[in-house]
Design a protein that fits this description.
The protein is built from 4 helices and no strands. With about 80 residues, it is mainly alpha-helical. Belongs to the CNEP1R1 family.
Length: about 80
């Protein structure tokens, strides 16, 4: 759930960052400084990936799939 919220925040911030006409007129770091919502949400998203949240999201679906496969094999 946290990954979804941060991803949506990052996408929304990126959209606002890209459509801002001031973004093209200033340097990269200045434009990031002018858009703190995008900057903070992007840093948070990168931090979550370094913390391994993607493994926690993908691993349960793989485990449930193997569990389902073993049940089918047992029934057959």
């Amino acid at each position: 759930m946290l990954l979804i919220v941060v991803s949506v925040c990052t996408a929304t911030g990126a959209w606002n960052w890209l459509i801002d006409p001031e973004t093209q007129k200033v340097s990269f770091f200045t434009s990031l400084w002018n858009h703190p919502f995008f900057t903070i949400s992007c840093i948070t998203l990168i931090g979550l990936f370094f913390a391994g949240i993607h493994k926690r999201v993908v691993a349960p679906s793989i485990c449930s799939m193997s569990n389902c496969t073993s049940r089918i094999q047992h029934v057959l």
